[in-house]
Every structure is written in structure tokens, then in C-alpha cells.
Amino acid sequence: MLVGEYRDKTHIKSYVKRALRMSDHQRRAYDRLAPLHCIPLSDSPIDPAGLFTNRARTIVEIGFGMGAATAELAARRPDWNFLGIEVYKPGVGKLLSLVEEHDLSNVRIIHDDAILAMERMIAPNTIDGLHLFFPDPWPKKRHHKRRIIRSGLTSMFAERIRPGGYLYFVTDWEEYAHRALEILTNTPELVNEYESFADPVPWRPRTAFEAKAARAGRPVRELLFRRHGS
Known about the structure:
Layout: H1 24-37, E1 57-62, H2 68-76, E2 80-85, H3 89-101, E3 107-110, H4 114-121, E4 127-133, H5 153-160, E5 161-171, H6 174-185, E6 190-192, H7 208-216, E7 221-227
Parallel strand pairs: 1-2, 1-4, 2-3, 4-5
Antiparallel strand pairs: 5-7, 6-7
């Protein structure tokens, strides 16, 4: 088992259990489509690219929410494969319905704890990119230990990315953005593509969180780091 600062004896989770109601549509989609598109949590490493019918670049997205942006990007980029990891069942059900609606063959899902899935199932040097779009900012200081971007954990993420691959982080929480910049800058496997925050990447879909941030007047910050090597 990998040991680092991000772990304790009880495994600090980046989420809390919430009683989120599934719509009938989401429940039907989950029950019918999960066996086709969802990968169960396992203690054995997998070949992420082997989940798909082609050997295109494989991108992992942690915390895709209701999956609208994931489905939009997958539809725009049929030459990329997307492995989404999400703990909340309604979001998984919604993305599964979008996969069917848009006939997306380049999306697979792990419905479980993202940290455990990355640690146990994704072997080093096997993915081409990692997306972290608007993760929970855990704004109270006593909860910062739950953030998905935290010391030690980022090295484990970086090791899963092939040399030359990228980690792409987006948030509308200013303090979290600056703290993430500091942590990622001090992650030895990664190098910043910019001097500080990144310019928006044209291919990233706008999300519901982004629209909410704009209405609230919160600026969106983006970070784009590369894994050392070529």
C-alpha cells in the first residue's frame, strides 16, 4: 500500500456521504447501463487504455459531478478516451444516460472513491492526462485535509501520468487556487506550463459550477502542469 502525507489510519476521504436523491431517469440508466460502462473498484492495477476499443490517449477525470461537461468533451474529442471517477450515484446515472444518448464509446466510469481508485487501479505511467474541474474546495481550514489537491497525494497522481502528460486543475475558490499552485509547484514530478495560473484551454467545456461562479462574481483559476519527461 502506498503511504504518504495524504493518508492516515482511517483514510482521509475527499468527500462525505450525502443522501442525494436519484431521479427515476438516473436510476433506470444506472441499473441498465452500469454493467456495460462501469468498472468496479479493484485492488489490481488495470490498463486504462485497455478499457476501450482503440488505443487513443486516455484521460482520467476525478469528480465529474452530473457529467454534462464530460459528455460534451467526449463528444467533441472522439479521438480521446475518458475514464471518469465519481462517488455520487445520481451523477453516475446522469452521465450514463448521456453516454447512451450521444452514443459515446469513449467513456468509462469508476463509481467509487477516487483516491482509492487512483492508488489501487491506475498503474504508474498509464494515463495521458488528469482533469480536476471544480473539486470541492472544503473552505473551512479544519477541512483542508480533505481537499483532493494536498501534499503527498499530488505525487501519487503525477506518478500515474505518462511523462509529457498533464494535470489540469480548475477552481473558482481563490484561496484554494493559490494553495493548489503552491502544492503542485512543490510536486517534484510536475512542472508548470505557465509562470503562475494558466490561460483557459479552448477545448474545456464550461460547467454549471463555472456559470454559478460567474453569477457570484468569483474568478475562475486554472492550473496546467506537465509530468517531467517527453
